[in-house]
Specification:
This protein starts with a helix and ends with a strand. The chain has about 130 residues and is an alpha+beta fold. It is about 25% helix and about 50% strand. The protein folds into 2 domains: about 35 residues; about 100 residues, Immunoglobulin-like, CATH 2.60.40. Strand 2 and strand 3 form a beta hairpin. The strands form 3 sheets. It has a 5-stranded mixed sheet with strand order 4-10-9-6-7, with no helix packed on it. The protein has a 3-stranded antiparallel sheet with strand order 1-5-8, with no helix packed on it. It has 1 helix and 10 strands.
Length: about 130
């Protein structure tokens, strides 16, 4: 009888923990679903929270900035991925409000075509931009 009670308590505990984990995942997905990158620009800098030197072609070893206006993500974060050939560089940026200007930069040390992708923490792509380094 004690074994049955113990097994029942363990089973109920496992069900509770599984249920809590599923609810947490659903809540995170709902929060991320509201994140939108409403604007994204590439340039050589950021001045007064706006992109400066907007362009799509940059010099070798230049700092390239990806500036974004993001909505719906207060307290969450996004991932900015810089890709060239078979290499990828990532940065995680926190979002401090429901309408937030943020940016990341990368010193581009290889010529060719690059892609900057903005994603949620779970990997959902929100926006992407391409540029060339000469």
């Amino acid at each position: 009888m004690k074994k049955i009670m113990l097994l029942s308590v363990v089973f109920i505990g496992v069900l509770f923990l599984s249920s809590s984990a599923i609810r947490a995942q659903e809540t995170n997905k709902k929060m991320e679903a509201g994140i939108k990158v409403v604007q994204m620009k590439l340039g050589t800098g950021v001045q007064d929270k706006q992109i400066a030197g907007e362009d799509s072609t940059f010099a070798l070893n230049a700092k390239v900035y990806a500036w974004m206006k993001v909505t719906g993500g207060a307290g969450d974060s996004i991932v900015v991925s810089w890709k060239h050939a078979d290499k990828e560089y990532k940065a995680t940026l926190g979002l401090g409000g429901n309408s937030w200007h943020t940016w990341a930069y990368k010193t581009v040390s290889a010529a060719g075509d690059w892609t900057v992708t903005v994603s949620t923490q779970s990997g959902e792509v929100l926006k992407a931009a391409t540029f060339t380094v000469k």
